Amino acid sequence: MAPAGDREGYWGPTTSTLDWCEENYAVTWYIAEFWNTVSNLIMIIPPIFGAIQSVRGGLEKRYIASYLALTVVGMGSWCFHMTLKYEMQLLDELPMIYSCCIFVYCMFECFKTKNSVNYHLLFTLVLFSLIVTTVYLKVKEPVFHQVMYGMLVFTLVVRSIYIVTWVYPWLRGLGYTSLGVFLLGFLLWNIDNIFCDSLRNFRKKVPPIIAVTTQFHAWWHILTGLGSYLHILFSLYTRTLYLRYRPKVKFLFGIWPVILFEPLRKQ
């Protein structure tokens, strides 16, 4: 976390329960944590195109919701790091819970008939979200949120490992890449928290172009945004394989992965 003594800017005093290691208002008077803010673009723009592609392909609405949920997380995180206000913090953290619940629903419904609805699972995840929201608004303890979020991510990891081990082993590359990228982001998130004082001292001694590479919370956004996007692709690939749509992963401009599949036939 950030040491005390950061300057104030356009948005006034910090009211959030968290203040990260990036120096506040160091780049511009209008954005509290500049790099932690702009790094959210990876969670905002690509999922919008993914949602549009899902609509055009006639995919089930839960996959459209997955893409849009990731976009909402990115937008909430943008607002939080730009302002460091408590209300914006909630706009970041609570959608993380809601989006993961959507991901969990998609992963556990991969092998069901088209357009089926699992009302028991849906009710359980909605109830879980409501309980987490209510408790978090009451206790305002970030560790509680982090533990609840970690439980959902762990559920996704276990389900993904089951799929690549017992159902579609040839998806190990995509599944483990998603997991590995996410875990790398989690590692950098921890380094940013634990060694914040050392990182700040290092940034003072090196050129800005080098200092910016040590903004590890921004890297957390980039890597977990990419990891979450890849997870949606993995979930979508699994689902479309089961529905026999012959999906293929392609790379736009040679770098950005998307899933292409044959137009869905009416059944």
From TrEMBL:
Annotated EC: 3.5.1.-
Keywords noted in UniProt: Calcium, Hydrolase, Lipid metabolism, Membrane, Metal-binding, Sphingolipid metabolism, Transmembrane, Transmembrane helix, Zinc
Recorded metabolic or biological pathway in which this protein acts: Sphingolipid metabolism; Lipid metabolism; sphingolipid metabolism
InterPro entries per UniProt: ACER
Taxonomy, superkingdom: Eukaryota
GO MF entries: calcium ion binding; N-acylsphingosine amidohydrolase activity; zinc ion binding
Topology relative to the membrane: Multi-pass membrane protein
Species, as recorded: Physeter macrocephalus (Sperm whale)
Name this protein carries in UniProt: Alkaline ceramidase
Residues reported in the UniProt entry to bind Zn(2+): 81, 217, 221
GO cellular component: endoplasmic reticulum membrane; Golgi membrane
